Amino acid sequence: MKYKQGPRDEQAQESPLPLLVMESSEYSPNQCVFCNNEFGIGLYRANCLEFLDMVIGKYPEGTFDMIFADPPYFLSNGGITCRAGKMVKVDKGAWDQSKGPEINHEFNTAWLSRCQRALKPNGTLWVSGTQHVIHSVGYVMQQLGMKILNDITWEKPNPPPNLSCRYFTHATETIIWAAKNKKSKHCFNYAKMRELNHGKQMKSVWSFRPPTKEEKKFGKHPTQKPVALIERIIMASTNAGDLIFDPFSGSSTTGVAAVNLGRRFVGTELEPEFIDLSVERLQCSINNRQSSLNFDEEILMEREAAISKLKVLKGKDLVSFACRYEVHLEGR
Fold it and tell me: Which candidate, 227, 288, 289, places its Cα nearest to that of 252?
């Protein structure tokens, strides 16, 4: 499905938020371009600042349980990197070009202040970045009175080599986790994180490989994050049914992870090519999730039928039926 600017699609008539009717502006068409109300998934082609202003006006106490943001890193400024064994320019797009530290910081202040207001009182915000942007992000959080909970180091096991041989190889990104303010009683699923870490407290250094080929089968985004990384973030700081927002949705990895884990999702993205990519990825994830739920329901119905039959069987008939049923389940 290719996104075309114009009237909203039939599938976008409802939203996980009560539908926000937005007028287009000189910066953005501000349209809901994808919605699945059953799973609570919505994607807007919208400027995140305008969208957040609308959300704050409608929900002054906040509506999002968690926000994950992967903002522009401002590193597309003529540098070089290694990709597939070749030297290439770092040029992710005009949206990633720096306009100078003062203007970059002003932009970070604009979107972070709105995200803070759009969070519920106990909501949390995760922001990823490299040294090009993350220090500005952390400083803005402090200026806004947010409570910084952790800084996660995402370690990349096989990063591209540094071709200039004048620096250490860039092998990490930082993800700052912060609560709305110092009074927030944030959600942290400690037991789940300990379980994932083989019974030990989880540390703040996480190792994840880049997105797999399967994650890029519909296309790729230049700053795409691995689904497993976002799933850990979501599992750590939300509960089933919570509403998650991503202001820089890109290829909607946050949305895919939300679908996989039974959370609701709203995202905003401006670039048409990434809207197309997002729609395909979100629909595929919803289809896979639906198939999984249907399969689980089928298994449950079979078990209930088997239990009913067991209640009327006796002796050898009971043992024979139980054995056949176990073999049937293993085959599934």
Answer: 227
Task: Give the CATH number for residue 112.
Answer: 3.40.50.150
- Contact indicator for 150, 174 with CB cutoff of 8 Å: no
Specify if 233 maps to a domain. yes
Confirm whether 248 is domain-assigned. Answer: yes
CB 281 within 8 A of CB 251: yes
Q: Domain count for the chain, please give it.
A: 1
| Range(s) of the domain holding residue 38 | 10-293
Cα 100 to Cα 27, 49, 103, 222, 230: the distances in Å are 21, 20, 6, 22, 30
Q: What is the pTM of this model?
A: 0.81
Whole-angstrom Cα Rg for the chain: 23
Number of residues that make up the chain = 332
Nearby residues of 105 by Cβ (< 8 Å), 6 or more positions away: 136, 139, 140
Strand order in the sheet with 243-246: 31-36, 41-45, 264-269, 243-246, 64-69, 119-129, 172-179, 147-155, 205-207
Could you report the per-residue pLDDT of 200-229, keeping only the tens digit for each?
999 999 999 999 999 999 998 888 999 999
